[in-house]
Amino acid sequence: MAIAPEKPARAAGRKAIRLSVTPSDLLSETPDLVNVWTAQVITLLPQAFPGILGESLIGRALQEGLWQLQTYNLRDFGDGRHLNVDDTPAGGGAGMVIRPDVMARAIGVARARISPRAPIIYLSPRGRRMDQALMRDLAAGDGVTLVCGRFEGLDQRAIDAFGMIEVSLGDFVMTGGEIAAQALIDSTVRLIPRVLGNQASIENESFSDGLLEHDQYTKPATWQGRDIPEVLLSGHHAKIEAWRREQAERLTKERRADLWRAWCAAHNRDPNEDQELSDA
């Protein structure tokens, strides 16, 4: 009779956060980490998390305890036998509105596990658009509580009572706030020290200085008759840096007039100046 080999002993150390097909169970079993940036998500779809946040560098940082994720199923705080979370709009109209009392119960439980300084953000198409400045502010704090909208949205009284900040992924409407929440978390967590490993990659990317990022190239030097710009192969660091700055300015001016005007105002530049920018 064959004897099954013994399983290797587990390594000692921090308990790993493992991804599974039931992430809400995983997260509920994970003890709170002290002094770690925390993302809380109140949602009707807790199974959507960690989702893409459990992959690549962000997922590895989650496993290593550089940040932590807490999800709260809004349905658990619902009313009655069927755990209702919504009702018809006051004054009539289509769709359903999330009740303020239900949301208040969920927020009460969530906020007991996070710093009171962490903002509460409601993902809404009518909010301020996400930008790099917002992500930097969030990354410098203790964490954030994210409220994912559904249906026709959340009762305004809950938004007012908790001082929620309304934030939008862009000028379009989605079926819920879950994708926007994941985008916000990803964009913020990558700014936390040690998550990406190379801080220089953050310093030189789009929006880091108010400009879009310059073009990027890698091997081979020639591909389908297209060459890497000669200056990038010169080894002359000052010229390379000047070329990249020119490219960043040109791309921003061509593609994002709003960013270009803001950058020029901050640097005492005329946004309408006809500056010669090199393409070489």
UniProtKB/TrEMBL annotation:
It is found in: Cytoplasm. Homodimer. It holds the Pfam family tRNA_m1G_MT. This is tRNA (guanine-N(1)-)-methyltransferase. InterPro entries: Alpha/beta_knot_MTases, tRNA_m1G_MeTrfase_C_sf, tRNA_m1G_MeTrfase_TrmD, tRNA_m1G_MTases_N, tRNA_MeTrfase_TRMD/TRM10. GO terms for biological process: tRNA N1-guanine methylation. GO terms for cellular component: cytosol. Its EC number is 2.1.1.228. GO terms for molecular function: tRNA (guanine(37)-N1)-methyltransferase activity. It catalyses: guanosine(37) in tRNA + S-adenosyl-L-methionine = N(1)-methylguanosine(37) in tRNA + S-adenosyl-L-homocysteine + H(+). It is an enzyme of class 2 (transferase). Belongs to the RNA methyltransferase TrmD family. Keywords: Cytoplasm, Methyltransferase, S-adenosyl-L-methionine, Transferase, tRNA processing. Residues 40-261 form the tRNA methyltransferase TRMD/TRM10-type domain. Specifically methylates guanosine-37 in various tRNAs. S-adenosyl-L-methionine binds at residues 149, 169-174. Transmembrane segments: none annotated.
